[in-house]
Design a protein that fits this description.
The structure is a homodimer of 214-residue chains. By secondary structure, chain A is mainly alpha-helical. In chain A, 73% of the residues lie in helices and 2% in strands. Chain A binds a DNA duplex (30 and 30 nucleotides) through helix 1 and helix 3.
DNA sequence: ACCTGCATGTTACTTGCGGTAACACGCAGT
DNA sequence: ACTGCGTGTTACCGCAAGTAACATGCAGGT
């Protein structure tokens, strides 16, 4: 039957695709976001056109690659979010999970955050990276959904939850990016500081002597 | 005298430099961050090598361009931060100033946030765009300084203030980016929602029926 | 056995960009 | 008139994305 035949072929193609993605992964892990198609093909032991047959263009490959890592990270975050503990504990666990991930694989993380590197970006027929960070968006939406599901925010809760989701994710991201570059403190301290911020310590803080305060 | 002569030349060079930057500005405003050196040169009515004589490489041009806008935006933010009003009012004014800026010139804003486009990045002697967003970093540092200057945060206030600075800026950025793409609400509403987040409404919110809440 | 279809792989090319070398003009000062 | 120097050009290199055209291995039908 052609169904079994096609299934066989499809499975083989899927396997190949996964192998290629893993090779690409290794290269990105080594070279960061500016990994070239040639380098990826070489790592996989093949040549460029095959990559293009499998993924269309560089944007396709990057999207597939990004989705793998994004899915994995989102799973971890969901686990931290779903842990049986107090709200503050879970917020801290979520922040810590994210920071641990970017700490473990900075190159991959940079790739996920800034995949628009493509270069001249000819985009003949397709618009790769029209806005830059699919991971940020997905995390923001996800967190927004969770917040809306579980918190009682009164009217406009949907809007508010989504804004907060994107806002919190952005806070996490920017602080993590800065922290990763300068390492001004331990991860634990960073987590506590950010959680404190979310817990309203900014509003609660007293003014410093000499001025009305921020 | 050679002093006056050199001053003349230097002034002429500076004028030229400013003209070139304005031409580059126009192109970036039109084409976004992927504006090519050729296009910028053409807009300025000259050819590539002159750009390279003035700015060294693309990174140099982008850095100069970024600094102009970054300085301007930071000035606006400082003004909002320094207004004579309650803390909450000023936080909202600052958020609104930033959002108004990115709303007015999305292309420029995208350029400032993702200038790492460099491409193959030969980097013969220099490392352009090693981390991606100088504007974010500068805003984060600036805000951190302001917070530390004016708020009494107890011990470790320096660390805490810097973390908060980068965190708040990141929140502003991510939420703004998302908002700019989807326009899910008015700017005013967005500002209020973010200020509410910073004011601890996340911690204060009640659980929804059926679960322990986020 | 033979031909056909198809996926897989290759080499060799085009296009477009960042960046540079070498050459040409204009205009001070001696 | 000759020299230095800043301004401008054309023509080129290297490299990366993406593509066309050709080769090969392996099903399955006749």
């Amino acid at each position: 039957m052609d169904t079994t035949e096609r299934t066989d072929q499809q499975r083989s193609a899927d396997r190949r695709r996964r192998e290629l993605l893993e090779a690409a992964d290794r290269v990105v892990l080594r070279d960061g976001p500016q990994a070239s198609m040639n380098a990826i093909a070489a790592e996989a032991g093949i040549t460029k056109p095959i990559l293009y047959r499998h993924f269309g263009d560089k944007g396709g490959l990057y999207a597939a690659l990004a989705q793998r890592h994004t899915d994995a990270l989102l799973d971890s975050l969901r686990a931290a979010l779903d842990a049986p503990a107090e709200r503050r504990e879970r917020v801290e666990a979520t922040l810590d999970t994210y920071l641990a991930a970017i700490e473990a694989r900075p190159q991959v993380y940079r790739f996920l955050m800034h995949p628009a590197e493509g270069g001249q970006a000819n985009e003949p027929g397709f618009d790769i990276g029209k806005h830059s960070a699919p991971l940020l968006r997905r995390m923001g939406e996800e967190l927004g959904t969770v917040i809306e599901e579980r918190l009682d925010l009164g009217p406009d809760s949907r809007q508010l939850a989504r804004v907060w989701g994107h806002g919190i994710v952005g806070m996490m991201h920017a602080a993590g990016d800065w922290w990763l570059g300068e390492r001004p403190c331990s991860r634990r301290e960073l987590v506590r500081s950010l959680a404190d911020l979310l817990w309203g310590r900014l509003a609660a803080a007293g003014d410093r002597i000499g001025g009305p305060g921020f």
